[in-house]
Design brief:
10% strand; 52% helix; three-stranded antiparallel sheet; alpha+beta
Length: 441
């Protein structure tokens, strides 16, 4: 164990610990259930599954687990397919021009549309000006939550509100909540109307979005308030619209840099397409193992959530008999664990074979930390994988991608609340003229 794998210091009277080794991280994540964001998200995204303490988190997980079942994923797949089509169409004017574009903004918009409709059951456009304001405000929410971690004095709610007032952004807090509140009220009314209809379906087969399941749950559990449901939706969205487009942007850059890997992924995609250029949800979920390896390798190298925080509520015994005392504030650096040479051969190299079936079996299960580990691991991991795989399939089927970036190393990364690229995500799109066979692609 290297000395710098653990760093202990004091923040006033609170003991703090930084961890980098996968065994230490997995032990803490498996045994400590209290996340601690120091209230940085409360004004914007409220209190829900991401930030709730253990007791409230248990209730959140009970509410949201059905939203990520296999049945619901199949329904979301239709939404993801629609917006992947939209993305392909929007890229046409920039394809074949020979110019590189930074794909971040394009992917952020496509992800926001897909995530909003699968969460709220309606598109942002149906909200008119309120929807447009929400679209801008959710981006503000992510940006200013990041600032609170960059500038610790903004953790103070009072100082943070003064800062937002000075830059004219206090209205964004209202705007980020107005749209989900409006949609929730309409959804509740619709469900009440269904309750009065003797011929209406009585089960969750009619649910096509996360909001549907939350509203149905609230009628069984009256303690679940409208504000609680709104906050759950906002926290899901806040996490998804930050992480999914980041992972997709890095993935596009890696595929553009590694043409051999891109070709192998394209061949897999081509084999499962239907005659009309679409994909069956089952094939997206099950029959794209190599594309999934590419996504997992991107997550390993560029984990959007590169660290996570826990407040230890009981003593935790690590493998070498070191004890983390209760009430310690622990930050686990998953990013460093993902570059452990004991786990990954050539960790600096983008290599999807790191996630081949054989390679995964050879590593301890505790090494797979990109979606977290233990009880509070990411509930929406399959949802995120489905969204990204659907977008990748449609982009690769329609375009060959390339870039002038020849090398990408850790020096090109910047870290705030997520990992980002300092140089952006410059991609060139070339239409695949003849998709009648792989050889002609």
């Amino acid at each position: 164990m290297q000395r710098n794998d653990r760093l202990v210091f004091w923040l006033g009277p609170i003991p703090c610990l930084f961890l980098k080794k996968h065994d230490d991280i997995a032990t803490v994540l498996n045994q400590s259930l209290d996340r601690d964001f120091l209230g940085a998200t409360d004004e914007w995204l409220g209190k829900g599954i991401l930030t709730a303490r253990h007791e409230e988190w248990t209730k959140s997980r009970k509410m949201l687990t059905p939203a990520f079942s296999s049945n619901m994923l199949t329904k979301y797949a239709k939404v993801f397919e629609k917006y992947s089509f939209h993305l392909v169409e929007k890229l046409k004017p920039v394809a074949d021009t020979g110019k590189e574009i930074d794909v971040w903004d394009w992917l952020m918009k496509a992800n926001l549309d897909a995530i909003t409709e699968s969460s709220f059951g309606v598109s942002i456009q149906t909200g008119g000006k309120i929807g447009e304001a929400f679209c801008l405000a959710i981006h503000d929410a992510i940006k200013f939550i990041v600032k609170r971690f960059q500038y610790p004095w903004l953790i103070s709610r009072h100082l943070n509100m003064i800062y937002l007032h000075m830059i004219g952004k206090t209205n964004s807090i209202h705007d980020v909540k107005q749209y989900p509140t409006m949609v929730l009220k309409q959804n509740i009314k619709n469900f009440q109307d269904l309750q009065r209809d003797d011929n209406a379906p009585s089960n969750d087969d009619t649910s096509h979005a996360i909001i549907d399941l939350l509203v149905r749950f609230s009628f069984k559990e009256p303690s679940v308030t409208e504000i609680r449901m709104r906050d759950e939706l906002l926290q899901i969205m806040g996490a998804a619209i930050e992480t999914s487009p980041l992972n997709m942007s890095f993935l596009m850059l890696m595929l553009a840099m590694h043409q051999d890997i891109q070709q192998k992924a394209y061949e897999e995609v081509f084999k499962i397409k239907t005659d009309d250029g679409t994909f069956k949800p089952h094939d997206i979920i099950i029959n794209m193992p190599y594309v999934e390896q590419c996504i997992k390798e991107t997550l390993r190298m560029f984990t959007p959530v590169f660290h996570t925080n826990r407040r230890v509520h009981k003593d935790i015994l690590l493998k070498d008999n070191m004890i983390i005392p209760a009430n310690t504030y622990v930050t686990t650096f998953i990013h460093f664990s993902n570059y452990d040479p004991d786990l990954y051969k050539n960790p600096e190299k983008f290599d999807p074979e790191h996630f081949s079936e054989k390679a995964v079996e050879a590593r301890p299960k505790t090494s797979q930390l990109s979606f977290g580990y233990g009880p509070r691991s990411c509930l929406g991991s399959k949802y995120a994988m489905l969204l990204i795989k659907t977008q990748v399939a449609h982009i690769l089927l329609n375009y060959r991608i390339s870039t002038d970036v020849e090398e990408f190393t850790k020096t090109h990364l910047k870290m705030d609340i997520s990992i980002r690229s300092k140089i952006g995500y410059p991609i060139r799109f070339t239409s695949r003229r003849d998709r009648s066979s792989i050889m002609n692609s």
